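Q: Fold this one first, please.
A: Sequence and structure below.
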Amino acid sequence: MNLSMPETVENKTESRGNRKERVGEVISAKMAKTIVVRVERRFPHPQFRKVVTAYTKFYAHDEKSEAKAGDRVLIQETRPLSKLKRWRLVEVVEKGEEIIRTRGDAK
């Protein structure tokens, strides 16, 4: 008989195994319960050794729609939630200025 502590929400999340976490910037929050997060990765070029910056976009589930464009957020890997969503929002690390573009703005 197992007389250990009953499983709570905290115990269940700890036993899920190692899940990848990334910190990135929200570039879009226009979908319902979904944010697009751009994660920056810096590494030396394999041949020339110059530091290169690469960006990757991740679609993440934001249940409470708390993240806005420009925020820095922490996302965590999860089971597939849709065709593109495999990440979920853990927390908003830092609030940022929302990027507002109008038709006349040039990029």
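Q: Good. Now the second chain.
A: Here it is, same layout.
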Amino acid sequence: MAMELPNRRRLVGGALALLVVGALAPEVSCAQIHQPTFECTNTGALRVTCQGSFIDGTSAAGVTVRVLDNRDRVVYVGTVDPQGRISFRKPDAEFHIVFDAGQGNVLTILASEMT
């Protein structure tokens, strides 16, 4: 029985190390999981509708969306609604859409990338 006791101690130490690593892992995972998703479609009738959210299921309501022309001049600014959508009139010239969720979470969609 004296031989089993050291093995158990190693197991407890190993389990403790796993708990410490496991306690640190959620911080890394949460940062990676809280990434924004943003997709825009040409809905016809000169309208664009975009859907924004976060991978972890967090609402994107209130996130700022800017539409810029090919010279980076702002042609529209709005915020995502409680359902995660924003809709605006399609600009006449080339444009791109910037979904700015803050803290480095900025996504840009070119008009040519829309579905």
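Q: Anything worth noting on the second one?
A: The chain has two domains: 1-33, 36-113.
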